[in-house]
């Protein structure tokens, strides 16, 4: 089966946006110099269920998702040009933590963790 | 109260330390491209890492507790130069104390050991004092730093990355000012068992 067919099937896939940031160091601090909002389409599923961690200060919500998409997804670059993509999904932001490059089979597989406060 | 330095916060002391570190390692801090060689840790959204063959230094600053130094607070009542009233309606209370900062350097790269030596030795030079003075900081190195420690780091792929850790303490003279209102006048009412005897106001006398 051609994977790209499933990734574009509206019965399984959905639209989401990815914020891709590039930057450089300013007085030693990393500054984003360009942030692009990229429309993507793919299959989003649960990597780990929404779960709370009870801490003395406040509850913290943890959640992670799996993204399968035909578009390339980035983690923080090794050539120092940018930080991990942020996936905007259902009103929440998830930072890409892991990426599998299956581009030879027509897709990218990524796991993203929910950013606190998003 | 601009007569006193603004108390430092992590972002301001780390920016000063980044500039100092660039200078002590021989980089011109006015060249933007040199910023990548000395980076500040704990970036909110993370930051890219360096390569195994790159000489990059990371730093971060936190306050530390030194009871012999940071417990005493001095307090003075002074005239308020911003109060132009006659007589003045306010004075200022000035608190001064010493705060101790600790700066941690994590020095990576093939030249990390020698770069740590440059950092350590550079702290003894006038350049360190002058850098802080130029920035208007009441910050002074505590000349009691331990030797840098070589701690090569195992990374993925079975590689050892050269790394040297080094830390130093700096005393900051912190000044905090609060404005205290003064009484402009005092009303005195005198009573006997037959009723009010007098009622008068004594204004505050000027200089």
Q: How do the SSEs of chain B run, as a string of H and E?
A: HEEHEEHHEEEEEEE
The spatial strand order of the largest sheet of chain A comes to 1-2-3-6-5-4
What pair of chains forms the biggest interface?
A-B, 19 and 20 residues
Span between termini of chain B: 23 Å
User: Unreliable segments of chain A (pLDDT under 50, ≥5 consecutive)?
Assistant: none
Level-1 CATH class name of chain A: Mainly Beta
Give structural notes:
Chain A has 118 residues and is mainly β. Chain A has one domain (3-22, 32-114): Beta Barrel (Thrombin, subunit H). Helices cover 4% and strands 62% of the residues of chain A. Chain A has one helix and six strands, in the order αββββββ. A six-stranded antiparallel beta barrel of chain A has the order 1-2-3-6-5-4. Chain A is globular. The relative contact order of chain A is 0.23. By secondary structure, chain B is an alpha+beta fold. Chain B has a domain at 10-71 and 96-173: Alpha-Beta Plaits (2-Layer Sandwich), CATH 3.30.70. Chain B has helices at residues 10-24, 67-70, 112-122, 126-134; strands spanning 38-40, 57-64, 73-79, 90-108, 139-141, 149-150, 153-155, 159-161, 163-181, 185-192, 195-203. In chain B, strands 1, 2, 3, 4, 5, 6 and 9 form a seven-stranded mixed β-sheet that branches. In chain B, β10 and β11 form a beta hairpin. The mean pLDDT of chain B is 94. Classes of the chains: A mainly beta (118), B alpha+beta (207). The interface between A and B is medium-sized, with 19 and 20 residues.
Entry keywords:
A: 118 residues, mainly beta, Thrombin, subunit H, 6-stranded antiparallel β-barrel, 4% helix, B: 207 residues, Alpha-Beta Plaits, 7-stranded mixed β-sheet, two-stranded antiparallel sheet
Question: How do the helices and strands line up, and which of them pair or pack?
Answer:
The complex is a heterodimer of chains A (about 120) and B (about 210).
Chain A: H1 3-7, E1 14-26, E2 29-54, E3 59-69, E4 86-89, E5 92-102, E6 107-114
Antiparallel strand pairs in A: 1-2, 1-4, 2-3, 3-6, 4-5, 5-6
Chain B: H1 10-24, E1 38-40, E2 57-64, H2 67-70, E3 73-79, E4 90-108, H3 112-122, H4 126-134, E5 139-141, E6 149-150, E7 153-155, E8 159-161, E9 163-181, E10 185-192, E11 195-203
Parallel strand pairs in B: 1-2
Antiparallel strand pairs in B: 2-4, 3-4, 4-9, 5-9, 6-9, 7-8, 10-11
């Amino acid at each position: 089966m051609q994977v790209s067919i499933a990734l574009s099937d509206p019965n399984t896939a959905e639209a989401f946006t990815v914020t891709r940031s590039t930057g450089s160091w300013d007085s030693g601090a990393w500054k984003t110099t360009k942030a692009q909002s990229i429309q993507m389409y793919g299959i989003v599923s649960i990597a780990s269920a929404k779960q709370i961690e009870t801490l003395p200060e406040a509850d913290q919500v943890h959640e992670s998702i799996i993204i399968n998409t035909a578009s390339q997804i980035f983690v923080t670059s090794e050539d120092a040009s940018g930080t991990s993509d942020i996936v905007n999904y259902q009103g929440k932001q998830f930072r890409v933590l892991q990426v599998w490059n299956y581009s030879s089979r027509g897709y990218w597989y990524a796991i993203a963790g929910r950013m606190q406060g998003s | 109260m601009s007569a006193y330095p603004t108390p430092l916060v992590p972002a301001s002391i780390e920016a000063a330390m980044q500039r100092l570190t660039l200078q002590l390692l021989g980089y011109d801090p006015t060249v933007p491209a040199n910023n990548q060689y000395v980076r500040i840790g704990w970036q909110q959204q993370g930051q890219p890492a360096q390569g195994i063959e790159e000489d990059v230094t990371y730093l971060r600053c936190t306050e530390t507790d030194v009871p012999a130094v940071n417990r005493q607070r001095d307090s003075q009542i002074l005239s308020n130069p911003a109060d132009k009233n006659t007589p003045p309606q306010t004075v200022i209370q000035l608190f001064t104390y010493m705060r101790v900062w600790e700066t941690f350097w994590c020095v990576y790269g093939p030249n990390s050991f020698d770069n740590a030596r440059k950092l350590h030795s550079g702290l003894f030079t006038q350049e360190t004092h002058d850098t802080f003075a130029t920035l208007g900081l009441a910050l002074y190195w505590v000349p009691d730093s331990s030797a840098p420690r070589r701690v090569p780091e195992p990374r993925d792929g079975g590689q050892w990355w050269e790394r040297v850790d080094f830390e130093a303490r700096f005393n900051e003279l912190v000044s905090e000012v609060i404005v205290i209102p003064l009484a402009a006048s005092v009303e005195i009412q005198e009573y006997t068992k037959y009723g009010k005897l007098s009622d008068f106001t004594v204004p505050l006398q000027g200089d």
